[in-house]
């Protein structure tokens, strides 16, 4: 039975193919949420086990107990997800405006609420719906995070790390928003553009079969060339649009460039790479390496930050690495 931990089930595979989906635990403290069976993962047990049936709703006390034991997420069957998602979206506007819920937790709730819609839009032949959706979600993210002085670690601790494409895109967008703020980049409108660019950055992966993105074995040369083409494909998908700026398109096109010129698609060096793409490269890699991937376990935060530092000046802009790693280490 495939579970969310199954490498074959990760990547851009459609939600409907999953057996279980992880949901941030803060979602379950909300009123008016559909009652569905809830599962919990325990150390040493591969599959989630039933924690509460739909007939016995979870309480705030249960949630506190689970948090105290280190649980960040509960699991629901993918067949129940649509029902949960519908009830969540019905009250999403009120939830996002509810200042009694911490901004990072509202972000995690938004991530959950947006997952199904993003997944559907991402796999459509035309990108229009995904771009429109990205604009709406970017507005919600910037509204939530701007001016909150959130420490990135707070966001990291509540979001999902299971590396579906949409999970990754929303994580990267949240991190990029905080990072732009830390770097003192621009006004809220500019940061909103960065958030939207981050939500779009991997749109070129729509053209790569999920079986290649999820492949646990080494890629063939042809498969690797296909993956390396995704920044160019994404750029071509979006470049005709009048609602995107050149800088946003460069985030899509240049997010796999490296400061030492060894990146793709062009092999640009440091200042030739747009600063928004340099910023994006750091949070893109950071989220990827701290998430479960088909071919390896997630790094811890500490390991992830050490990796970024090991690549400072070669892959990444050194001043930006310094800024992100010191911010992530704040408690
Ligand atoms: Fe990418």
UniProtKB/TrEMBL annotation:
<feature type="domain" description="HD-GYP">
    <location>
        <begin position="143"/>
        <end position="331"/>
    </location>
</feature>
<keyword id="KW-0378">Hydrolase</keyword>
<dbReference type="GO" id="GO:0071111">
    <property type="term" value="F:cyclic-guanylate-specific phosphodiesterase activity"/>
</dbReference>
<dbReference type="InterPro" id="IPR003607">
    <property type="entry name" value="HD/PDEase_dom"/>
</dbReference>
<dbReference type="Pfam" id="PF13487">
    <property type="entry name" value="HD_5"/>
</dbReference>
<protein>
    <submittedName>
        <fullName>Cyclic di-GMP phosphodiesterase response regulator RpfG</fullName>
        <ecNumber>3.1.4.52</ecNumber>
    </submittedName>
</protein>
<dbReference type="InterPro" id="IPR037522">
    <property type="entry name" value="HD_GYP_dom"/>
</dbReference>
């Amino acid at each position: 039975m495939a579970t969310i931990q199954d490498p074959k089930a990760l990547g851009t595979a459609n939600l409907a193919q999953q057996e279980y989906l992880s949901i941030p635990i803060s979602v379950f403290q909300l009123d008016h949420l559909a009652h569905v069976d809830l599962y919990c993962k325990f150390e040493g047990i591969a599959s989630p086990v039933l924690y509460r049936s739909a007939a016995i709703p979870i309480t705030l006390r249960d949630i506190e107990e689970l948090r105290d034991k280190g649980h960040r997420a509960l699991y629901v069957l993918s067949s129940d997800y649509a029902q949960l998602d519908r009830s969540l979206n019905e009250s999403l506007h009120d939830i996002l405006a509810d200042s009694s819920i911490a901004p990072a937790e509202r972000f995690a709730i938004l991530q959950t609420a947006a997952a199904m819609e993003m997944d559907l839009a991402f796999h459509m032949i035309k990108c229009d719906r995904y771009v429109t959706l990205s604009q709406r979600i970017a507005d919600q993210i910037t509204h939530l995070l701007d001016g909150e002085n959130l420490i990135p670690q707070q966001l990291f601790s509540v979001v999902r790390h299971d590396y579906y494409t949409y999970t990754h895109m929303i994580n990267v967008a949240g991190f990029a928003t905080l990072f732009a703020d830390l770097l003192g980049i621009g006004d809220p409108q500019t940061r909103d553009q960065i958030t939207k660019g981050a939500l779009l950055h991997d749109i070129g992966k729509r053209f790569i079969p999920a079986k290649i993105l999820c492949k646990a074995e080494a890629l063939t040369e042809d498969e690797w060339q296909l993956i390396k083409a995704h920044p160019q494909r994404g750029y071509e998908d979006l470049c005709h649009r009048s609602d995107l700026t050149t800088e946003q398109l460069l985030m899509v096109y240049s997010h796999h460039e490296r400061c030492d010129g060894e990146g793709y698609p062009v092999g640009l060096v440091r200042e030739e790479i747009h600063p928004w793409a340099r910023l994006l490269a750091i949070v893109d890699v950071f989220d990827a390496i701290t998430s479960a991937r088909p071919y390896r376990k997630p790094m811890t935060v500490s390991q992830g930050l050490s990796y970024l530092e090991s690549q400072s000046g070669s892959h990444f802009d050194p001043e930006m690495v310094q800024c992100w790693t010191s911010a992530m280490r704040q408690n």
